[in-house]
C-alpha cells in the first residue's frame, strides 16, 4: 500500500475528488443510459439527487474516518483496502437503488437491468478516482524513497548516522544528524525534514513519536512540542515572548516552530548544554 494513500490528507481528498468527478461523469453518462434518474430537472429529480449525494458523501466520509482510525491501530494491507473500497461501492449502490422507486415514482421499477447499469455507473465513479489517487500516492512515495536513498548514499561513510526504524522495527532510512532540520508528528506517522543536494526534502515514516525519541538520544535533535522535534544545530534564533516561545531554523524557508510550555525548560537546558554561546541567539519579543 502506498503510505500516503492512508494519510488524513489523501483520505479527505478522495471524498472531494470522487464528488467532483461524479458530476461531469454523470452528465456524460446519462444520455447513454435510461436507468439514471440523477439530474437537475425536473425538480423531483433534483431533490432526490441532492438526497443521494448527501447520503453518499456521508457514507464515504464515515468510511474514511473509520479507515483512518483502523489503520492507526493495525496494518491495512492492499487486500483489505480493496475489500474496504468494494464495501463502499456496494453501500453507495444500495443507497441509489433504495432511492430509485421514490425518485422514479414506480415502486416496482427495480429490475436486473437497472441493478446492473447503476452498479456499473457507481463502480466507475469510485474506481477511476481511486485509481488516480493510488497512482499519485505511489508516485509520491517512490520519489520520496528515491530522494532518501540518494541522501543515504551521500552520507555514506560518515560516522554517527541515525538509522530510523518503522513501527515494525524494520530499517527505513539512514541520515546524518546534521542533515535533519526537524521532525513533525502526525498521529502515528512522522514527517522527517532533511537536506540533500542543497534542497529540503521530507520522508514519511510510520512510527510513534515516543519510539522515535529513543532513536535520537545523544543527538542535537530535541523535542520542543507535542508535534515537533527540532535540530538545535540548525538554530537561527530562539524567540521568547510573554506566553510563548518559538525556534527559527536556519534553512532557506526560515521555518518557525513553536515551543510548548511543557517542553520549554528541557529545550532551553539542552540548548545551553550543547553550546552555551547559543544563549546569545535568544531574542525577546
List keywords for this structure.
five-stranded antiparallel sheet; four-stranded mixed sheet; 285 residues; alpha+beta
Radius of gyration, taken over Cα atoms and rounded to an integer in Å: 25 Å
Helix proportion range:
40-55%
Strand content: 15-25%
Biggest sheet overview: 5 strands, antiparallel
Distance between the termini: 46 Å
Coarse shape:
elongated
Q: Give the rounded overall mean pLDDT.
A: 82
Structural class: alpha+beta
Taking pLDDT < 50 over at least 5 consecutive residues as the criterion, the unreliable ranges are none
Which sequence of SSEs, written as H and E, runs from N to C?
A: HHHHEEEEEHEEEEEHE
Strands of the largest sheet, in order across it? Answer: 5-4-3-7-6
> How many strand segments?
11
Give a structural overview.
20% of the residues are buried. The chain has helices spanning 8-29, 43-73, 78-104, 112-154, 209-215, 261-274, and strands spanning 162-165, 171-175, 180-186, 189-196, 199-206, 221-225, 228-231, 235-240, 245-249, 256-259, 282-284. Helix 1 packs antiparallel against helix 4 (112-154) and helix 3 (78-104) packs antiparallel against helix 4 (112-154). The strands form 3 sheets. The protein has a 5-stranded antiparallel beta sheet with strand order 5-4-3-7-6. The chain has a 4-stranded mixed beta sheet with strand order 10-9-8-11. Strands 1-2 form a two-stranded antiparallel ribbon. It has 285 residues and is α+β, with helices and mostly antiparallel strands. The model has no long low-confidence stretch (mean pLDDT 82).
